[in-house]
Q: What sequence folds into this?
């Protein structure tokens, strides 16, 4: 079974702190993604990566950056956390072969910024 | 631009009732369409997909048909179970590989015994 794990289920940080969210997948997937999930808005793509050291902006990249130094690991960085970044953050990965389509999601990290 | 609209929930049904969750989309071209499900405390899982017009995706008793003429992808199940209680997300892919997903707001389904 594909497994996508995220470093924390719950995280509480103060405004202005630098925050790292870590995601690891064990299926050798090329693609990895970071989303935020907010009630009524569904999931919105923050960044994705299709290869080591490669990244692409998603729909809402402002205030975030990412790092992918190894194929299995994709980090989301909040350089200076703000209260409007309080949300559920979901990581996902997928195979890049033709017709693959399916994204595999981790359980999420609920981040609260106070 | 691309967007997905789902019926707002929660949807509350009794066990064995018929389920429909409406989903309509706006997109350029012909996107692939997906239903993902999120069970309590878990990440999303792909439930079913359809990659071209008139395709029917099906899985675990759920079905959805890609209707280009009405830009819809409604999710149906003939007889729901308590274990189907979850949040359901409709999504479209803006690229050919299913990477650039646009999600609807999600619909919570609650099934009572």
A:
């Amino acid at each position: 079974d594909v497994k996508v794990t995220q470093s924390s289920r719950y995280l509480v940080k103060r405004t202005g702190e630098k925050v790292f969210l870590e995601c690891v997948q064990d299926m050798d997937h090329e693609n990895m993604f970071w989303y935020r999930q907010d009630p009524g808005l569904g999931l919105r793509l923050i960044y994705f990566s299709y290869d080591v050291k490669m990244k692409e902006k998603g729909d809402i990249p402002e205030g975030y950056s990412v790092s992918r130094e190894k194929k299995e690991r994709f980090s989301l960085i909040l350089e200076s956390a703000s209260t409007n970044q309080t949300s559920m953050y979901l990581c996902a990965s997928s195979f890049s072969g033709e017709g693959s389509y399916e994204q595999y999601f981790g359980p999420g990290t609920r981040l609260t910024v106070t | 631009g691309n967007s997905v609209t789902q019926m707002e929930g929660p949807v509350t049904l009794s066990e064995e009732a018929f389920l429909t969750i409406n989903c309509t989309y706006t997109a350029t071209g012909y996107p692939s369409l997906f239903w993902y499900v999120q069970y309590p405390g878990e990440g999303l899982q792909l439930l079913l997909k359809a990659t071209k017009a008139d395709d029917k995706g099906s899985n675990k008793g759920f079905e959805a048909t890609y209707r280009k003429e009405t830009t819809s992808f409604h999710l149906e199940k003939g007889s729901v179970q308590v274990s189907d209680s979850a949040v359901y997300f409709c999504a479209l892919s803006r690229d050919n590989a299913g990477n650039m997903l646009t999600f609807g707001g999600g619909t919570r389904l609650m099934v009572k015994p």
